[in-house]
């Protein structure tokens, strides 16, 4: 642990590719501290470093992660989404990023509902259909919430602006004075309800206005020189620390993982329950290929 702490990145550190980590909080020291405290790492490390009697021996190990978010210099990094309000007031979301159990449906629904100020029960998430869903790249690399979520937000914001213009024309109120919340549209300064969300939709329908919007979000610019391997390959990074306590039966080689402690800097959690599920899933995947799978190599 002491060796890691002497060599980890901090704010404004320079990476091997020459990137200065100055646009986000570099939290390696913090996640290590959290994991060490929660796992009682120091005490157990001292205890397990001493000679142990019997066939079963225990040890405790640490690993830390520093990983770029999204595709980085690998490819064009952007996502699109369509948000449409139907005549019955229901809202459809379509995005090219796939729901694989990680919680995209939930998160995208939350984002759209918050932007429009409506109940999530209104919103239906359409499964990916390559004939109609906007191209959004691969569902990998911790990019879906950042890119797809912002694309959904942008599309929903356009719809909100359209409805605001309709309400402004009807009630002679400035669009800047409108607040969308709790299924209604309010006048901000007076906190007075002007019209319900459904009534605003009806006004749009009466005018023949099609309430559909396309949102697009492109990741922040990066710079990368492939020839020399230098530049800013990613716009931001995530950090984590995991500690595993393991018991090995030296008589038969049986391995038992007693406990895993995981501490991750996740940024802003849109849905903490889904996020925890992602961490648990990652831990179990690592556990699987760490003790149950085998990679055979030849000549190195």
Automatic annotation (TrEMBL):
Molecular functions (GO terms): iron ion binding; oxidoreductase activity
Residues spanning the signal sequence: none
Cited Gene3D superfamilies: Aldehyde oxidase/xanthine dehydrogenase, molybdopterin binding domain
One Pfam family from the record: MoCoBD_2
Domain Aldehyde oxidase/xanthine dehydrogenase second molybdopterin binding: start-end pairs: 34-297
Coiled-coil region list: none
Name used for this protein in its record: Aldehyde oxidase/xanthine dehydrogenase second molybdopterin binding domain-containing protein
């Amino acid at each position: 642990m002491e060796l890691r702490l002497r060599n980890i990145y901090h704010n404004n550190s320079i990476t091997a590719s020459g990137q200065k980590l100055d646009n986000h909080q570099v939290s390696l020291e913090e996640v290590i501290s959290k994991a060490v405290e929660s796992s009682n790492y120091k005490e157990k490390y001292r205890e397990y470093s001493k000679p142990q009697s019997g066939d079963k021996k225990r040890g405790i190990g640490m690993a830390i992660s520093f990983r770029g978010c999204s595709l980085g210099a690998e490819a064009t990094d952007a996502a699109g989404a369509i948000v449409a309000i139907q005549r019955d007031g229901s809202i459809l979301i379509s995005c090219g990023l796939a729901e694989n159990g990680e919680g995209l449906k939930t998160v995208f629904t939350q984002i759209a509902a918050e932007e429009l100020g409506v109940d999530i029960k209104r919103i239906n998430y359409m499964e990916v259909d390559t004939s109609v869903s906007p191209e959004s790249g691969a569902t990998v690399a911790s990019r879906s919430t950042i890119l797809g979520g912002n694309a959904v937000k942008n599309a929903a914001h356009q719809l909100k602006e359209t409805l605001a213009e309709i309400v402004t024309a009807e009630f002679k109120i400035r669009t800047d004075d409108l607040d969308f919340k709790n299924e209604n549209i309010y006048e901000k300064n007076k906190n007075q309800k002007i019209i319900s969300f459904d009534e605003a939709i009806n006004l749009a329908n009466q005018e023949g206005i099609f309430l559909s919007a396309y949102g697009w979000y492109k990741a922040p610019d990066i710079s990368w020189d492939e020839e020399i391997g230098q530049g800013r390959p990613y716009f931001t990074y995530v950090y984590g620390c995991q500690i595993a306590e393991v018991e090995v039966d030296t008589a038969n080689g049986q391995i038992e993982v007693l406990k895993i402690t995981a501490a991750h800097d996740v940024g802003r959690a849109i849905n903490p329950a889904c996020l925890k599920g992602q961490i648990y899933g990652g831990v179990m995947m690592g556990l699987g290929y760490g003790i149950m799978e085998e990679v055979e190599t030849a000549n190195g």
